[in-house]
Amino acid sequence: MCLEWAGDQDWDRIKGYAKEHGPEVLLWSRVSKLLLGGEMGVESVLTTASQYGSVEMVKLILDAGFDNKEAMYSAADLSMRKSDNSTILRLLLEHGLDPNMDLRIEGVMKCSSNLLVLATGRGHIDNAIALLDHGANVNKVMVDRDGEVASPLEIAMGYGAHDIFRLFLARGAIATTNDVDNLLSICFEACKGERPKLSRDVAIKMFATFLHLGKPDSDVVQDKFNSYLPSIRDPTITNITKHYLQGRPFCCFVCEALTAKSRNKLLICPCRTVAYCSKECQIKHWKKHKVLCTGPLNERGESEAMVKKRPKTGKGMKGGGADVGVAEGADVGVAEGADVGVAEGADVGVAEGAGAKGKNGKKGKKGKKGRGKKK
Ligand SMILES: [Zn+2]
Ligand SMILES: [Zn+2]
């Protein structure tokens, strides 16, 4: 009965009924096929209230002691479908909903995802943050109907949800070998226009973010990259990858932009380990970088500190002291004249020697076997 009233959003009537007959009347639930787009779900006043976004009702029901976990999962799902407002989701989590619950594994319905995946698929970052705040595992993979495994990172990439992707990396997502492979594959597909939900532009930005924040193992990146035929590799992705593997800056250290705001080239700090898209980003980062910045390098690629450390053999160490002394004087604006805008590291987007050949030495023979690679 209450359920019918809930369908009509007649919350006052339900409240009155609960007052008269005790709050237990709010706890009723049953498994139903009607919910969740034809999937099995659990029907209850709670799920309906969540679906319609009635925070007050949800709170009332939870406070009455509602604890059917499957219904709470369904309620969370429905609330997340509606919007990125995480109020109801947070209430559910505070009342015992397990953020890592997987409804398929629990055997209630054949849904293949967990809540974090659902939030990601909808591009709802607020929901995702709520889940992570309550202990959702950012590395928990989901297994779909065909037994394919996908990580939250991969799903965020597939949906082009850049902000959520960045959030996951910031919250400790660790890129597995599988991730590196899948993300590359998704990027290459997107670059060829084969991904309706992911444009080439966004794919490239996300890939830069991935390397910058995720810091995947270089050997794995190299190996997986090489496993794609040169004809499949996008030149920009190739460039970014190349620079990453060589330890060169490839994007703005702060905002992950690939080019400087006013010019094409990134502004590289004289120490040549970080680059920025703008003075603003550089200033933002300077407090942290100051500690690590070695100042300008001499023509041998040595910093002042390295020169000082070098065993003194008397003469023959030209170029040592030369342009030293910047490190301290540098405070904020570092790179003023110096190397700003040099950035050989930065000509992202050009096509140049795209293929794996640019990868000098290291890869030797094993590189070339490029197979077509899964699709
Ligand atoms: Zn920037
Ligand atoms: Zn520096």
From TrEMBL:
Record keyword Repeat present: yes
Gene Ontology terms for molecular function: zinc ion binding
Disordered: region residues: 352-375
One Pfam family cited in the UniProt record for this chain: zf-MYND
Basic residues bias spans: 359-375
SUPFAM superfamilies xref list: Ankyrin repeat, HIT/MYND zinc finger-like
Residues in MYND-type domain copies: 252-293
Key words, A-Z: ANK repeat, Metal-binding, Repeat, Zinc, Zinc-finger
Signal peptide limits: none
InterPro entries, A to Z: Ankyrin_rpt (IPR002110), Ankyrin_rpt-contain_sf (IPR036770), Multifunctional_regulatory (IPR050745), Znf_MYND (IPR002893)
Matches recorded under PANTHER family: MYOTROPHIN
The name this protein goes by in its record: MYND-type domain-containing protein
Annotated organism of origin: Triparma columacea
Lineage of source species: Eukaryota, Sar, Stramenopiles, Ochrophyta, Bolidophyceae
